[in-house]
Amino acid sequence: MSVPAIEVRGLRREFRASQGLFAAPRRVIAVDDVNFSVPAGSVLGVVGESGCGKTTLARMILGLMEPSAGEVLVDGKRLEGMDRRARARLIQPVFQDPFSSLNPRRRVRDIIAMPLVAQGDVTTSEVDRRVAESLERVGLSTEQGTRFPSQLSGGQRQRVAIARALVLRPRIVVCDEPTSALDVSVQAQILNLLAELRRDLGLTYLFISHNLAVVEHVASEVAVMYLGRIVEKRESEALFRDPRHPYTRALLDSVLTPEPGLGVPDVGLGDIMPDPANIPSGCRFHPRCPACFAPCAATTPRLTTLEDGLVECHLAG
Amino acid sequence: MSALLDIEDLRVTFGGTAAVRGISLTVEKGETHCLVGESGCGKSVTSLAVMGLLAKGGKREAARLSFAGEDIREYNEKQMSRLRGDRMAMIFQEPMTSLNPAYTVGSQMTEVLRRHRGTPRAQAVDRAVELLTRVGITAPGLRLGQFPHQLSGGLRQRVMIAMALMCDPELLIADEPTTALDVTVQAQILRLLAELQKDLGLGILLITHDLGIVARVADRVSVMYAGKVVESAPTAELFRAPRHPYTRGLLSCVPVPGKVKRDEPLGSIPGVVPRIPPGFIGCAFRDRCGFAEAACAADIPRRNVGPAHEALCILPEGARA
């Protein structure tokens, strides 16, 4: 079996959230014992509500944040202690907001060249050639390369961010909400571009989104996060056809498909909001769960292996 | 009987840009009218123009702009501010920026009532507690003493809704009220709005870019593109038989859960939204439209294409995108 593109073992991250000058800081567990591996060439979608830890997870996989415990392996190599330049050649990010992730004072071609220049040992003509190649890959013209980000539309800026991620020819791209700030027509263009690049370049994506329909469109496998844990991880098609965790079901039921006459669904989650500084006992979803029963409040559910994935719920045991 | 809100040929310009180029729509009592479109199409400017809140330099003209039968075109700032927050209320996308971070929830909520109605403080507090409970907030007494940053996004939006209802408005203008929220919270907020509308007979003008929301909550839809309503129809009719190529393009862009095919490209609309100078003639979508012909550069008449269904397009019936 080939080496997985990303492997995550027992990953955990805690924060200390200050509560003011004299109060004791609160301990927030953003990511709690997360394990998974992403085979090369596939797409793992990560979904969950805000505050579930999906962005913290992405930052640790990118090496932008140290885990409190556990380890990340990228292309079979431990991320910890890896040279920054070697890491950049392996894995690259595309962030949500193309308005704040691009330096407004630099021209597009300089923004795209930056990761390459930071590698140090590349000639100017090689940089020019690679930047031109990247621009073309994402459907931008040479002329657009001479502009500043403020002169481009949101979709074009996101293309610049993708071009910058590709200039080092990485194996893996971590996309954190790459289309959330874009209009639907532009979102479709960017999703189509990402799919095309994955096919042509054999890329692996970790694709984070709160939009389940987008995830279904791009991901081969989907992990559902709730308060720092992956509560269900299944093959995409199976997850959307037959969700096993009540939280996954509630998320899917909340999606408003463009079908008139159905009204807005009542997903039965109640008014309690998840708080990562105050994680409930037993199953951490039980205060909101419409299917909660006796053991849920007391006992932490075990991970159950299914034919096409994993689920962490007493009902699946 | 006249409509609650009746807009005819509304135009807004900012210097050399025509943001709204002659739109007409009505909102009846108890009706939800959705104004849908992408960023820059003029949907928010339309709502701001109705409320008289255009930024400096914005110029408004209209053949008719009436609220509950009264012509509000010539209202001065004082008259408008008496109307706003009272009979005509609004909620915005980001509750964090529309709530004042320096005041408690309670003082902001009661101010509305004290200012518009001169209600004594104790009575205003009672009303605030009643409405916070109504919008599903537990421990309303506690929330009144909190500051906006102490609330989650969903709670803040509920507070905004409760605040908008303080004076029993007849019309609610909601500009992307759930865009910043999680899908689970979005469903709760939209259910709440629908329930309130049923109980209070509110007319709602809902501005959104999300066709899923439109399908689920609207009675009537107007699709905006480059400052014009290019298609308007009852909701079921619009989704069953979209006529304008822009509407069809927009519908094809939306991935629908359970119906997507992986590795198959989504529909998309090539190009970007153009900037429209004043005096522009013809269809503004023609540069991005697969059906454009020479006649599209001339004035496009509004046509009836179905029951209560109008489109701003010269395409003959039966042409399909």
Describe this protein's structure:
The complex is a heterodimer of chains A (317) and B (321). Chain A is of the alpha/beta class. Chain A is built from ten helices and twelve strands. Chain A is 31% helix and 23% strand. In chain A, strands 6-7-8-3-9-10-12-11 form an eight-stranded mixed sheet, with helices on both faces. In chain A, strands 2-1-4-5 form a four-stranded antiparallel sheet, covered by helices on one side. Chain B starts with a strand and ends in a 10-residue tail after the last strand. Chains A and B meet through helix 6, helix 7, helix 8, helix 9 and helix 10 of A and helix 7, helix 8, helix 9, helix 10 and helix 11 of B.
Please count the beta strands of chain A (DSSP E, at least 2 residues each).
Answer: 12
Number of helices of chain A: 10
Characterize the main sheet of chain B: 8 strands, mixed
Note the gap between the termini of chain B: 39 Å
Q: Give the topology string of chain B: H per helix, E per strand.
A: EEEHEEEHEHHHHHEHEHEEHHEE
Tell me which oligomeric state these chains represent: heterodimer
The total count of strands of chain B amounts to: 13
The greatest interface here is: A-B, 52 and 53 residues
- Shape field of chain A: globular
- How far apart are the first and last residues' alpha carbons of chain A, in Å? 29 Å
Shape of chain B: globular
Are there runs of chain B of 5+ residues with pLDDT below 50, and where?
none
Question: What is the share of helical residues of chain B?
Answer: 25-40%
> Which structural category do the helix and sheet elements of chain B fall into?
alpha/beta
Biggest sheet strand order of chain A reads: 6-7-8-3-9-10-12-11
**CA-based gyration radius of chain A:** 21 Å
- Strand content of chain A is 15-25%
The overall pLDDT of chain B, averaged over residues, is 89
Rg estimate of chain B, integer Å:
21 Å
How would you state the average pLDDT of chain A, rounded?
Answer: 92
